[in-house]
From TrEMBL, chain A:
InterPro entries: ABC_transp_permease (IPR001851), LivM-like (IPR043428)
Gene Ontology CC annotation, any one: plasma membrane
UniProt KW keywords: Cell membrane, Membrane, Transmembrane, Transmembrane helix
Residue ranges, annotated region (Disordered): 1-24
Protein name (Swiss-Prot/TrEMBL): Branched-chain amino acid transport system permease protein
Organism of this sequence: Actinomadura luteofluorescens
Localisation per UniProt entry: Cell membrane
Membrane topology, from the record: Multi-pass membrane protein
Pfam families: BPD_transp_2
Any GO MF annotation of the entry: branched-chain amino acid transmembrane transporter activity
Positions of transmembrane segments: 32-49, 55-73, 106-129, 136-153, 186-207, 236-258
TrEMBL record, chain B:
Keyword ATP-binding annotated: no
The family this protein is said to belong to: Belongs to the binding-protein-dependent transport system permease family. LivHM subfamily.
Designated name of the protein: Branched-chain amino acid transport system permease protein
GO biological process, one term: amino acid transport
Organism whose genome encodes this protein: Actinomadura luteofluorescens
GO annotation, cellular component aspect: plasma membrane
Pfam families: BPD_transp_2
Chain ranges passing through the membrane: 28-48, 60-82, 89-108, 114-136, 148-168, 191-210, 242-262, 274-300, 307-328
Keywords: Amino-acid transport, Cell membrane, Membrane, Transmembrane, Transmembrane helix, Transport
Lineage, broadest ranks: Bacteria, Bacillati, Actinomycetota, Actinomycetes, Streptosporangiales
Length: 353, 338
């Protein structure tokens, strides 16, 4: 009899008090179903939206890629990175360099960028973990690393110094070169495919054996290590995966805007954008990064439009920059203060209750 | 050293050295000697590279003078970091706010720039108290990431608010009756000297306050052992708010002293902020004297890097020093292990 009570379901009170740390296997299928539905809904979008909104949609997808990448390392892995611009920039610059200087297809450049970013991430991560940098120290170290890369790229000859790279225009459309007419829906579909793939990878990763180890290490590193988990190896795998996903966003950015320079690729605002999206959506949740990217992306579009043609009482803002960032700064503060788990995180918590 | 609470950052190497009475001073002296040796070597290399003694001497003088200012900016940050455990990313933006206050007062009233200290320092003190009570919830309660994000959001908000209302055009705060003199051949602008002296003076006052006053003792007690301080009747919430406000007021003072030396733009806080973080890590969290020493060191590194690599990469040397110190001595060059 006692055996039955021990293995019986915990009462409703117990479940609510202690959020389940290791997710059961089932949700994986649920998340995959959500992904499929989202993709199906998104595919016809560029045919429906006006061209201006189409551009916003592409930007949101690039945003989402960055955020998904950041979330793998900092959300699932608990390693708070303040320097994801480094990986975004490495992705952008590797593919831009290969394309501009050697005519290599951006698809191959994308893979190369992912490899470079992952390799660099592993080296940096190894040093950071070897010297046990944690919390604020880890964040500051990643930040310093990204800034150093920015400065190095700004002063190096073969990366085009402060000017950066301009992707040469080709005649006509080419899937191989990822270049199409400016308002072609192809950009959206490619970005959607890549973002969908990244979401898929992040879901599979979270619910994989490795993912379980990673969240266990995040929740209690000492306990995980004492049970024999190879902590360093799993941390490095997480960091590499996160960097690779973020690098894809970098390549896509360069291909879409046909231009990249040190500040656009390695500036701290890139890292901040990735962080802000995930925090607003919900750190460590599968859909938080996507929700955050959609919210921030559309918000910055709304404020930009507002600035171009301001209503009467905002006339003094005409032509002034800064409002879009100020708006998402306010949003960031409010969300952190009022919904510390982000929008998706808070909703999930409510539903569980 | 005036550690006001060495934080429990895990030691980078497993070997824990035993500290014998008197050993602390000896080890500080040893570290100072090593640091001094490295600085001497760096200067020697700069001499060989530039081939001109005067150029190097000028860099050393400029670096040290600039370093005093970095130290002053970092003092506020290290106080907040050491006592409240908050990585205050808004420190630079608050500095920018204070500069615009100084600029506005000078423009509006024609006051001598240094007299704007009387406006900027109290204003920043109040802003600091309000930010701590209003945004950070008045305690060190929220998680590290959340505090970092709130101060980050605040910094973005302040910077872009300034950008919206003042525009991006750079502004200047001119010092009436500015002069410059020659120190063994190195040109020293008066404003730079005043800024340096002001930094040393404020640093000394802060040190005195932390060491010799009841309130300073309370701050150190809260930093070292929060529950313990609470048990003996220290109002921790009040100490936290006042510490944050004092740290912010330091940024205000630094801003007024630095205003005649720089072109005032909404985003100028960013770079000072980065440098200040480096100085804080270098000096050891919560170590006011360390902040000043670290500031001088970073001022030197910056100037010497310019000699090695040319103008654009002065920050590169700063970051390199930062990462090396972060990895090898996270408790800072002058800090103690917990």
């Amino acid at each position: 009899m006692t055996g039955i009570t021990l293995t019986g379901r915990p009462g409703p009170g117990a479940g609510a008090a202690r959020p389940a740390k290791a997710p059961p296997l089932r949700p994986q299928n649920r998340q995959l179903a959500v992904l499929a539905v989202l993709l199906l809904l998104a595919v016809p979008l560029p045919l429906v939206l006006p061209p201006a909104q189409g551009a916003v949609a592409v930007r949101i997808l690039i945003f989402a890629l960055m955020a998904i990448g950041w979330n793998v390392m900092s959300g699932f892995g608990g390693m708070f990175s303040f320097g994801h611009a480094a990986f975004f920039g490495l992705g952008a610059y590797t593919s831009a360099y290969l394309l501009v200087e050697h005519g290599v297809s951006p698809w191959i450049g994308m893979l190369a960028g992912m490899a470079v970013a992952a390799a660099v991430a592993v080296v940096v991560g190894f040093f950071a973990f070897r010297y046990r940098l944690k919390g604020a120290y880890f964040a500051l170290a990643t930040f310093a690393f990204a800034e150093m890369l920015r400065l190095v790229v700004t002063t190096t000859e073969f990366t085009g110094k402060a000017v950066g790279f301009t992707v040469p225009l080709i005649q006509g459309s080419s899937l191989w070169k990822i270049q199409f007419a400016a308002d072609s829906p192809a950009y959206f579909w490619i970005a959607l495919a890549l973002a969908g793939l990244a979401a898929l990878v992040s879901i599979l990763f979270l619910y994989s054996r490795t993912g379980r180890y990673v969240t266990a290490i995040r929740d209690d590193e000492l306990a995980a290590a004492s049970l024999g988990t190879p902590v360093l190896r799993y941390k490095l795998v997480t960091v590499a995966l996160s960097a690779a996903i973020t690098a894809v966003a970098g390549t896509l950015y360069t291909q879409y805007y046909l231009f990249v320079n040190p500040d656009l690729a390695f500036g701290s605002s890139v890292s901040i954008q990735a962080i802000a999206a995930v925090v607003i959506g919900g750190i460590g949740t599968v859909w938080g990064p996507v929700a955050g990217a959609v919210i921030l992306g559309s918000l910055s579009d709304v404020t930009a439009t507002l600035l171009r043609t301001p209503p009467g009482f905002l006339d003094f803002l005409q032509g002034r920059s800064g409002l879009d960032v100020a708006v998402y700064a306010v949003l960031l503060i409010l969300i952190v203060r009022l919904l510390p788990k982000g929008i998706v995180g808070t909703l999930a918590q409510r539903r569980r209750r | 050293m005036s550690d006001i609470g060495t934080k429990a950052q895990s030691p980078p190497t497993p070997a824990v050295r035993r500290r014998l009475p008197g050993g602390a001073t000896a080890s500080v002296l040893k570290r100072a000697a090593v640091t001094g040796g490295l600085v001497a070597a760096a200067i020697a290399v700069a001499l060989i590279k530039s081939g001109s003694g005067l150029v190097v001497w000028q860099s050393v003088v400029t670096g040290l003078l600039m370093g005093g200012l970095y130290g002053l900016i970092a003092m506020g940050l290290t106080l907040i970091f050491g006592v409240l455990d908050i990585v205050n990313f808004a420190h630079g933006a608050l500095l920018a706010i204070a500069m615009f206050i100084a600029f506005g007062v000078v423009q509006g009233t024609g006051l001598h720039p240094y007299l704007t200290l009387l406006v900027a320092v109290p204003a920043l003190f109040l802003i600091g108290a309000a930010v701590h009570r209003g945004l950070l919830g008045g305690t060190g309660g929220a998680s590290l990431e959340n505090q970092l994000l709130i101060t980050l959001g605040l910094s973005l908000l302040l910077e872009n608010g300034l950008l919206m209302f003042f525009g991006a055009e750079p502004k200047n705060v001119a010092l009436p009756g500015d002069f410059q003199f020659s120190l063994f051949g190195a040109v020293v602008p008066g404003a730079r000297l005043y800024a340096f002296l002001g930094a040393v003076l404020i640093g000394a006052a802060l040190y005195w306050m932390l060491r010799r006053t009841r309130f300073g003792t309370a701050i150190r007690a809260v930093a070292a052992n929060r529950p313990g301080a609470e048990l003996v009747g220290v109002n921790v919430r009040r100490v936290h708010t006042l510490t944050f406000a004092i740290g912010t007021a330091c940024a205000g003072a630094a801003a007024v002293l630095a205003a005649p030396l720089v072109t005032v733009t909404p985003t100028l806080g960013e770079q000072f902020n980065i440098t200040a973080f480096v100085v804080v890590v270098l000096g050891g969290m919560g170590n006011v004297a360390g902040a000043l020493a670290g500031g001088l060191l970073i001022g030197l590194v910056e100037q010497l890097t310019t000699i090695y690599m040319g103008g654009q990469s002065s920050l590169l040397g700063v970051f390199a020093v930062f990462l090396v110190v972060l990895f090898l001595r996270p408790q800072g060059l002058f800090g103690r292990r917990a």
